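Internal ticket #5521
Category: modeling
Description: The requester needs a full-assembly model to guide mutagenesis choices. All entity lines are attached below as received. Residue total reported by intake: 1019.
Assigned to: D.W.
Attached entities:
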Amino acid sequence: MLLQLNNIFKWVNSGGQRIFLLKDINLEVQEGEFISVMGPSGSGKSTLLNVIGMLDGFEEGEYHFLDESVHNLREKHRANLYKEYIGFVFQQYHLLDDLTVQENLEMPLLYKKLKGAERKAKVADMLDRFNIVGKKDLFPAQLSGGQQQLVGIARALISNPKLILADEPTGNLNSKQGEEIMDLFKQLNEEGVTIIQVTHSEKNAAYGSRIINLLDGRMI
Amino acid sequence: MLKNYLKTAWRNLIKNKAYTIINIGGLALGMAVTLIIGLWMEDELTYNSYFSNREEIAQIYQSENFNGTIGTGPAIPRPLEKALREEYGDNFKHIVMSSWSTSQYLEYMETSISRDGNFMQSEAPDMLDLNILKGEKDGLRDINSIMLNQSTAHALFGNEDPIGKIITVNSESPMTVTAVYEDIPVNNSFKHLSYIVPWDKYVASMEWVKNSEDNWGNNSFQMFVQIAENTTMSSISAAIKDVKKESGEDIAEFDPQLFLFPMEEWYLRGNFENGKQVGGRIKYVWLFGIIGVFVLLLACINFMNLSTARSEKRAKEVGVRKSIGSQRGQLISQFLSESFLVVMLAFLIAVFIVLISLDGFNDLSRKGIEFPWSSFNFWGISLIFVLLTALLAGSYPALYLSSFKPVRVLKGTFKAGKYASMPRKILVVLQFTVSVAFIIGTVIVMQQINFAKNRPVGYDKEGLIQIPTFSEDFTGKYDLMRSEFLASGAAIEMSSSSSPTTRVWSNRNGFDWEGKPEGFQEDLAWTDVSPEYAKSLNLKIIKGRDFSREFASDSAAILINETAMKYMGLTNPIGILLKDNAPTDPDPPVKIIGVVEDMVAQSPYEPVKQAVYAFNREEYTNFYNLRLNPKQSTSQNLAIVERVFNQHFPGLPFQFQFIDEEYGKKFAAEERVGRLSGIFTALAILISCLGLFGLTSFVAEQRTKEIGVRKVLGATVFNVWNMLSKDFLKLVIISCFIAVPIAYYVMNGWLQEYPYRVILKWWIFALAMIGAMMVTVVTVSFQAIRAAKSNPIKSLRTE
């Protein structure tokens, strides 16, 4: 088992009222799964993803990740945990504008304090695997959306995460580019990477092995 | 990692050129100011550091009580030397009597030059540890020897070996050059010491010096000492305190207190008030130090403000970096290395600015500061300074930016809260508080200078020159020269005097007169003058009459000034006799024949001192004062004067000073402070405006959408401009209200030092406030109007 959420509640107080973002979420994810989270706008998909990714906290409940009790961990340990095991892919790609493709890929490795030679090898590997060697010295602004998302996925993968969290990865792409990205996810999943994606599209959700539906913060 | 940080930072700088120029340029300016001030402070604080024995050298000072006012100064009487040597000799390694620095003519073959130097006892070179380049250190043994500094030796002898050469001093006795010493550097109390002549020569050649051997009342000399090992200045001061007081009853009346004034305090702490040491130039060292820190602070504030203002733009970057594994510490070091890069670049530019402006600064501040290329300390301190600035300027943005939560900023919903701009506003207020205070301070300094400059001096200083007549050659020539100069048509009147018009060189006391209050101890400024003195200066007689050559009795007559009349308690002074009450060999009594209007001879900031102008009974004189012919041009007059002078004194160089220029020198220190603070104020305002400019452009950018919406709804350019300017104007107004009381307090304190001072008027403050507001409006308007004029469709589409 990769992770387990037990009775997770998340809320904000607004004008004396408690507004629930997540209500009593129970979820178990095994290694090698490909899960799609679906639901209308505001149903809590992204919030759930951020909680799983440890970028966001929660008010009540338990979260176990690889036998670590995340709810008991300090901020710093939590950061170390996701740094080690989780890769993020965003709808807006979120590449660093001032860095080239190559440098963007290298960044997570720098934060993990890997040696220069090791970093170079991994970056070269990844460029090769995604077929973007020719683009390595370009800046994000010089790439198309699909290419940028490709770099985004490559960056998420470079530190060998166990889990990839993708928040509407194809939301800003045209259908052909979207299809390519989804194919890539499928291929990664087959290679053993666990993936949780948030999506609006039935078609994309179908790539997954399991679908979770959310409505007003509840799983249905 | 660091490389990566710096690379990112560099690309960031290149990308935002306007921001970079404002940021680095402003910081560089601030640093240049701080560097220059730092170099200046170092120069001031190391004054006299040339002397290796400086910690042990002191000058003997004395305080005397004149009717409750204690005056302190270095002038001491001759018999003190004997008393100290005989009874307190163990305390001193060296005791050196010295004359005041005087200008003398030195002649060798055809070359004749005028230089300043002293008569000093033979231990002087040893005490000062002069660096002897040629000859012997013990070169003042023989009464006819002279030691020269290097530049004087070069001026006289060129490349010849000066040792053993014979020169004449003041066309009198021949003196043998026994040694050449290294020039004493500019930042030194002895910088004018171009030659040293034996003290014994002084005693032998001047009758009055010889006669003062046992006279405790003649304070006309200086004494320098080096204290013995295992003693302290304060213990010796305590021991010798009353040596002079015990010399006699007439002396004890003035309660003279002797003490050692250490060399290390001469320059920076040389002011005394009522017998107490009250600082001195050190005040300006601190003042400029504070200004330097403030200017740097202003520049750092710009950096902080612009960085945090850009935070919304960089928030996304922080979020991404955090989500791909950056820890807060890593982000902090990234932002700090960015700020280090900026500060380093600014420092390099600042060094360049210092290099190109150092000459101008030296002219302005009368310094000889050189850029300390090879000083390990300078570079070490600079590095620390750069690191500290980077930390100071970069810490706030680093902590602020790195605290963003990735979820918030990545969702695109990040909006800085209502109070996020609060620290920024406080910093802007701080900046303008400093700027406004600087403006007020500078205006007041300038006003005070002008006020003193416009003070009526009591005589006509235009068209008046003085010719120094220290050489014995002038003795007995006054009448002849006067008729020659008048006949030449270059001068319409001429007089002689023992002090220059713009100074008082001697003060006297110990007189009795009819109606003198019991126990009154007078202190009179005393100048011996020729009978035409008042006429040549256009000094008005307000009571009695001027001197006249027709009355033989006038040779025992004096004029007093108006202040002296009140000071001495005389309502009808004409005919009053002043009797010298010295127990031995008193001067004959003198009679007051007239009262002249007060003339400002000393500080233009102080009341005129009670003064006596005595008919010059002897043949010696120190200055000729010539009233030039107003019907001819000054250059014509001067050419004629020079020709006449050279006919009569062919061996002496023609020297003269314009009295109005000499008088103007009294303002030099204040004018320097005024000009420097003017420049620093201008820079402070410039830096603050740069920051404001940058800040407005970011605010305009941030509010692009709002401006677009407002314009669509019908807002005019003026509405938008008003909206954007108002926020900043509010801050500046707050600054004004903080700055005014502070500036008032500080400047009022500064003015207290000047008895003759300008009155602080409210409109100075109002003017400074209006000025600051105008500058703000202009600066802000550049951006505000641009933003207001932009096409709303364009700005709305970018969202």
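Resolution: model delivered.
Comment from assignee: Chain B touches chain A through 25 residues (CB under 8 Å).
Ticket closed.
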